[in-house]
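Input record (one chain):
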Amino acid sequence: MKNSKDISSMNQEVLKSYLESNVIKSAIKLKGKFAPFSEPVDKIPKTLQIKRIYNLKEQLKNFFLIIVKNYSNSNQPKVRYFLTIILASQSSDFLVSLAKDYATRNNLKLIQYSLFPKKRISLLSLKEIRTIEDYSSSIELLKDFKKKFRKTLEKIRNLVENE
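The corresponding structure, as predicted from the sequence alone:
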């Protein structure tokens, strides 16, 4: 019988193979070096080094696949995959506060990050992909998030215009 670590590494290999053959194959790899981002683990920020970023514009507009090197932890996979969508091309603390509630409820990450060097910082929403099934469900979740986020911005704009 296989232990959970073996099953997890098998899932990682299957996911890697799926992404390489079905997603990365038709994606555009972004060139350049990218700053790492961090995530809190037990209230301590852990750095995730970016290995590669792919623009999925051939398949999905404003979607990216970010591949990161995981922080050192023996029971974690070495590489993690994040499906990413641009919520706003120019981020601000106000936009983050608008998006935070939905992101928290749906286990999404929000980061302010520049995907393109020498460009403004964008507001990105990330969903970690752990299995093949996560990929398609994450696409729908992120599309829905962007649609709801846009509606909220539209409501605010209409309120301001009507004042």
